[in-house]
C-alpha cells in the first residue's frame, strides 16, 4: 500500500492529477480530492447554512467561552494557520461536530451534559483534531456518507434519505460518519490539545462514560447523536486516561485545570431539552407557539424538529413527511418552486382550503437515477404572507397505502389559539448549592425532582444516585 501511494503521489508531482498532500498531523503523504483552499471554501460556504438549519444559541457568555477556548487550542494545534470558528447551536441533541475548513459546532444539549471545563476542553480538542487530521476531507475521498440531519437512530429507505438531503440543501454531505481509527486519533489529539492549554484530559474519559450511560438509558432508545456519528472505539476510556497521564508528565502539568464550579455556573439558565418556543410535540400533536399553528402527527411516527423544518417518519422507514416554509408570494408560485427544487413532474393539482386557510394540493413524481419513482403529496397552506409546505414522500408503488395518512395529517393543520400552548415555557438548567452532605438521590428529592427523572438527572450530573456529596457541592436540576 505504501508503494502504491508513493506512486500516486509521484504521478501527481508530474502533473497527471493533483490528489496528494501531506497530513498535518502524521506528516505522511495521503490521497485527497481537495486542496486546502477548497476545504476552507467549503466550510465558509456551509457555515451560514448550518446556522440557518440549527440556529445559534443566544447566550453571548457561552458563545464567547467556546470561542476563547477554541482559539487557544487551535493556536497549539497542528494547523494553527487556518481561521477557526466555534459555535453553540440551538439544539437539544447531544452532539458536537466539525466540518472542513475550521468550523466546530457544539449543541446546547452537549453543553448541558459537561460537568467541568476539562470535559468540555477534551471534546473541543477532539473536534479540532478531526479538522487538523483532515478526517472529513479523507472521508470525502472514501464517500462514506451518513444521514446526519435526519431523524437520529431511524431507518430510512435510501431514496427517501436522498430526498431529505435535498430539503436540507445537501448539508449531509458535510456530516460524515468517522471510523474508529479516526476517533482514536481525534481522542489522542483532544488529549494533546487540551493538555497543552492546561486542562486535565483524564476528565475527557468521564464524559464518554456519560455518553455510554445516555445510550443505555431506557429500552431501545437511539444512541446519542455524538455516538452515532463518532463510533466508540474499543478501550476508549483507558486509552484516553493513559494518554492524559503521558501528556501530564511531558508538560510537567502538576496541577492541571478542571474548573468544575466555574463551568457549572456558566450553565445557569441554559435551555434544557426541547425549546417549546421553536415548536414542541405533546400527545401526538406538533405545536408552534411563535408561528401559531398546530397539526397532528401519525401515531407511532418518530419526529425531529429544527429551526428550518420538522420531520416525521414511521418505524418501517418507508415514508417521510416534512414541514417547512415555501418560498413564493402566491400558492401557485410556491408550487412552481417546489416542482423545480425537487425535480418533480405534476400528476395532479387543485386548489382547496384547510381549516379556512387557502391551500394548494399537488401530487407529483420524482424519477430516481436507479429507475425507481417517488411519489409526493404536497399541501401548500397560506396564512397571511407565510406559506407552509407539508410534503409526504414514499415510493410510487406504496403511495396508495400512505396517501390517506398523509392527507389526514396535512388537513389537520390549523391556527393555534390555546393560551396554555402559546405560553408554554422551556425547561432550564439551574445550579444548586448543597446545604449539607447528602447523596445525589436525596438532594434531588429535596429539590422536588420527580422520581421518574432521577436517573436522567444523575446522568446530567455525571454522578450515580448513591454518590455521597459534600456540603457546598454544586449540582444541576432542571425546571422552568
General description of the model:
The chain is globular. The longest helix has 19 residues, at 36-54. The chain contains 17 helices and 21 strands. The chain has helices spanning 2-13, 36-54, 60-75, 108-113, 117-132, 135-142, 158-167, 180-196, 202-216, 225-229, 236-251, 260-266, 331-341, 399-411, 419-422, 440-446, 454-461, and strands at residues 20-22, 29-31, 85-89, 96-99, 103-107, 271-272, 280-282, 285-288, 293-296, 302-305, 309-313, 319-325, 345-354, 357-367, 373-383, 386-395, 414-415, 427-433, 438-439, 468-469, 474-479. Residues 1-19, 140-156, 169-176 and 219-223 have low confidence and may be disordered. Helix 3 packs across helix 5 (117-132) and helix 5 packs across helix 9 (202-216).
Topology:
Layout: H1 2-13, E1 20-22, E2 29-31, H2 36-54, H3 60-75, E3 85-89, E4 96-99, E5 103-107, H4 108-113, H5 117-132, H6 135-142, H7 158-167, H8 180-196, H9 202-216, H10 225-229, H11 236-251, H12 260-266, E6 271-272, E7 280-282, E8 285-288, E9 293-296, E10 302-305, E11 309-313, E12 319-325, H13 331-341, E13 345-354, E14 357-367, E15 373-383, E16 386-395, H14 399-411, E17 414-415, H15 419-422, E18 427-433, E19 438-439, H16 440-446, H17 454-461, E20 468-469, E21 474-479
Parallel strand pairs: 3-5
Antiparallel strand pairs: 1-2, 4-5, 6-18, 7-8, 8-9, 9-17, 10-11, 11-12, 12-16, 13-14, 14-15, 15-16, 18-21, 19-20
